[in-house]
Structures are given as C-alpha cells and as structure tokens.
Amino acid sequence: MLVVVHSNYEAMSKKAAEIVASRIRRKPNLVLGLATGSTPLGLYKELIRLHKNDGLDFSKVVTFNLDEYVGLAPEHDQSYHYFMWENLFKHINVNPSNIHVPQGMFGDLKISPFETDPKIEQFCTWYEDEIKKYGGVDIQILGIGGNGHIAFNEPGSSIGSRTRIKTLTEKTVKDNARFFKSKDEVPRYAITMGIGTIMESKELLLLANSAGKADAVKSAVEGSITAMCPASVLQLHRKAILVADKEAASKLASEFVTYG
C-alpha cells in the first residue's frame, strides 16, 4: 500500500482530488466508487472546484456508492442519497442515469441472523450485476472507521463478502449518532458493498484524517491481515493508496510513509 501523508486535512483532500481528477481525464467514462461521511467532504469540494474552474468533465462518469442506511428514504437528510446530492452530484455535470446508490427502503423487513429478506437479496444481486455490467469499479474511494471498518463491513465481516445487509455495531451507531438528533434515531442496518466487492476494484483510494483514526490506520497499514480490522485486507490489493493527514498517520513507522 502506498502511504502519502500531508500536513493537514485540506492538503490531503486536494491530493485525493488530484488523483481522482487524473483518472477521469485519462478515462472520461471512469467507473468511480464513492464514499460518504465527513472524511471525503474535502475531496468532493475540490472536485467541484475543478469542475467549475478547470472544466473537469463528469458527463460520462458512472458512480457506485458503497452503502446506504436501511429504513431511510432518499430524501431523508441523513440518507446517503441526500448526502451525495447535496455534497457532490448537484454541483457537477454527472448524468443522473449514471448514478448508483444502494436502496434503503424495502417496506416491512423480517431480519434474523439466519435469514435475509428476499427483496434485499434481489437488490444486492442486482447491484453486483450493475457493477459488472460497467466493467467493474476503476477507482474506489474509501474512508476508515475508528474500529477499522470500510463501508459498513464491521469487524468480523468475511473478507470474501459481497453486497449485502449488515447489522451495525454499537460503536458505529455511537460514532454516527452525532449526525442525528439522538442515538435512538440511528438506523441499525445498512446495505453495503462487501469486502470482496471492494477488493475487485482496479484501484483503491483510502482517506483518513484526525488522531481518532490513528490506531485504525496503523492496524490497516502495518498490522496483521484480519477480519477484525476489515481495512487490513487492503494490504493485499495490487493498487491501494492511503492519503492521510499527519494526525491520522501519527502512529505509522516512518519508513512506510511518503510525505506530500
């Protein structure tokens, strides 16, 4: 894994945007995997700037988002549909028919440890097939959770997992509660790309900022490959890049780091 560390969040976001923009200029019909959360906001802001000021063209780009909460309508202000439209899609010239965000509304669900609702299984199969139809994701943007999760693949997730429904851990619910009025409003389930799906992307761009991510980053980059730190499997990818600020990279051994 290539590790590139910048002095602050703004600098790392600009570097990440530079990487994504270069891939779009090289391949205008790029299949771009997207992530939500606070970490990629700076990247999206810079991509918008590059579109408006430098003519970065998204008209042929196809997007696939990693995940979505189950039970939130697309217009809900905490859904990932809403997040992506507010923070990226409505500011660039992406074709709405080329946008893919997992569905979160399935009516009355019956979820147990031993059985998944057929409607969810059908949707997840369709989502996987759509990715294959476009030739796979060219570059997948990822964040990392404080417990090492990528997308909503929580610790213990199968390394070969595909798009599916996942129960969120209490830590993830607690971490995400800051975006809701109360912890009780945080959904307990999500549809997420699996680790196996993510690893099939041609290139991975992992973003990390703040001291709160330092332990997870160290485990992901220098630790053993284990399902208990899902991000650690990225060590096996042929083309993975970590772009981090100095706080998130503060616990890494210096010989692993390139400073931007």
Give me a quick take on this structure.
30% of the residues lie in helices and 17% in strands.
What does this structure look like?
This protein is α/β, with parallel strands linked by helices and 260 residues long. The protein has a single domain (2-259), classed as Rossmann fold, CATH 3.40.50. Helices cover 30% and strands 17% of the residues. The chain has seven helices and eleven strands. An eight-stranded parallel β-sheet has the order 5-3-2-6-9-10-1-11, with helices on both faces. Helix 1 crosses helix 2. The longest helix is centred in the N-terminal third of the chain and has 18 residues, at 9-26. The model has no long low-confidence stretch (mean pLDDT 93).
